[in-house]
């Protein structure tokens, strides 16, 4: 039993941190490039402090209807070496 618990603990430590929704404000949308700039809070799964930065959109369709000043909640992760917004919704 102890061995199983230790193995499970090691597996959990080896898994990447799950993406958590982060609040932010869109400052720029570049639909032709599939990118958006967001002023955001800390992104724990990427070990990133609050800042304003450019993200690639995992799906360019998520950029439709966004403009500077739009409040959003989003998930971000590294996809093929690029920091990418993987989920996005307008904040309420």
TrEMBL record:
It holds the Pfam family CusF_Ec. It comes from Bosea vestrisii. Residues 1-19 form the signal peptide. It comes from the Bacteria. The keyword Signal applies. The keyword DNA-binding does not apply. This is Copper-binding protein. Keywords: Signal. InterPro entries: CusF_Ec (IPR021647), CusF_sf (IPR042230).
